[in-house]
Amino acid sequence: MFFKAKDLMTVGNIALGMGAVLVAMEGMDAQTADEAAVHVFWAGVCILGAFFFDLFDGRVARLLGQMNRFGAEFDNVADLTSYSVAPAFVLYLAFRKVAVLPGADEGSWLRLAVCVLVALIPSVCGCIRFARFNVRRLDIPGYWIGFPRPAAALMMVSLVNSHLFANSGIMGWAGVALVVFLGFMNLSLVPYISHHERKWSWHLKVILNMVWITVVVAFVGGVILDVMPARTVFDVVLLWLSFYLFVQWTDIPEATRRDIARLTADWNR
C-alpha cells in the first residue's frame, strides 16, 4: 500500500494548514481589529502546528522504515498547502482588518490592493518554487537554494502576530516590504543552511538548541499555561528567523557559495 502510517504526519500538516485557512476566513466577519487579531493569532498557531508535523514526518518515516517516493511527493504538496495557501489567507486578514497602514484606510482601494499583494506573494512564489524544483531538482547536502518555504511562511505569520506589528505605527508598511522581500528571497538562488545531511559545528548546535528551547518555552508558557503574553512565541520565532534570513550566510564558506552559484547559473535563463 502506498499510503503508510508515517503519512498520517503529513495529513496532520495538511489538516492544520487548512485549519489556518478556515480560522482566517471566520475572522473576516470580525467587527473590530482586536477581534480579527484573535483569528490571526489562532490561524498562526495552526501553521506552527503544521510545521511541527512537517518537522517529524521524515523522522517517523525513517524510524518505521517507510520511506518511499509517494511520501516525498505527498509532503511536498502538503507544504504547498500549509506554507503557501494558508499564509495567504492569514496575511489577507491581518492586513485587511488588523494592520495600521497610514494613508490606506480600511475600505479604500489602496488598502485592498495591499491586501491582495501580500496574499499573492506566498501563494505565487510558493507555486513557482514548487514547479521549479519539480522540473529540475538540485539537492545539495546541508543547503537549501533560496529562502525555504516553511521559514518564509512562519516569518510572515509571526510578523503579523508579533507585539512589534501590533504596537508600532510603521510596521504596517514595513511589514508589506518584508513580505515582498521574503517572496523575492524565496525565489532567489541564495544558499541557506539546511538541517538535512548537515554536520553541525559546535556553535550552530548551541544556536539550534537555543532556538527550539526558547520557542517551546514561549509556546507552553504563553499559549498553553497563560503565564506570559501569548504572542511571545511569535516574537521569538520572528527574532530567530530574522537571524536566519540575514546572518546565516556568514557560516557558509566562500568556496561553497561559488560552487552553488556555478551549479545554479542557468536556472533563470
Strand order of the largest sheet: 1-2
Distance between the termini: 41 Å
CATH architecture: Up-down Bundle
The helicity comes to over 70%
Number of helices: 10
Tell me the total number of β-strands. 2
Question: Which labels suit this protein?
Answer:
72% helix, single chain, 269 residues, mainly alpha, 10 helices, Four Helix Bundle (Hemerythrin (Met), subunit A), globular
Helices and strands in order:
Layout: H1 7-27, H2 33-64, H3 69-98, H4 109-135, E1 143-145, H5 149-161, H6 163-167, H7 171-187, E2 191-193, H8 202-224, H9 232-247, H10 254-263
Antiparallel strand pairs: 1-2
Helix pairs in contact: 1-2, 1-3, 2-3, 2-5, 3-4, 3-5, 4-7, 5-7, 5-9, 8-9
Overview of the molecule:
The protein contains ten helices and two strands, in the order H-H-H-H-E-H-H-H-E-H-H-H. The protein is mainly α. The protein has one domain (7-263): Four Helix Bundle (Hemerythrin (Met), subunit A) (Up-down Bundle), CATH 1.20.120.1760. The chain has a two-stranded antiparallel sheet with strand order 1-2. The N and C termini lie far apart (41 Å).
